[in-house]
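Morning F.,

Quick status update on the modeling queue. The single chain you submitted on Monday has been processed. Sequence for confirmation:
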Amino acid sequence: MTDEQWYAMIDVHLNRAVPDYSRRDSLHARGCKAGDRRRQARSSQIINVSSTSGVAGNPGQVNYSAGKMGIVGVTKTMAKEWGRFNINVNAVAYGFIETRLTQAKEKHETIERAGKQVELGIPDQMRQMAAQFIPLGRAGTPDEAAGPVLFLASPLADYVSGHVLLVTGGSYV
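Structure tokens below.
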């Protein structure tokens, strides 16, 4: 991979997304103070998105895996730092979910990035092989991917913080 590919992936996952809400000044601007948890019934929730590639690695994706593992580190650190402000920080790490990025490459769908056409998808043979390694025997649906986020955003998860929830159909357990 080129330096440009490495830095582009790290930039997307760690430089662009994280600083927007991780600066301590942003907490003070919102009026958050240590000890507020006793005054508020519900905690605030931050839910980051990672991947099993970040948790377990994936050949050919060292830049993506590094960025997604960085999100895991950010999640766990922010949970420790921001808990006193009544802010829970968790992450969801997805496995194989049916999206435009995981559709059959044979569909020849592309998107434009930085003036270049990028083909989306995974060769169908690889998709079939991947499903064989998932105990549930199939990729997850977008609705199934949304459920764990809904849980983490709900009052049911008010005492869950610093956790990375694997949504994998049983893989990586």
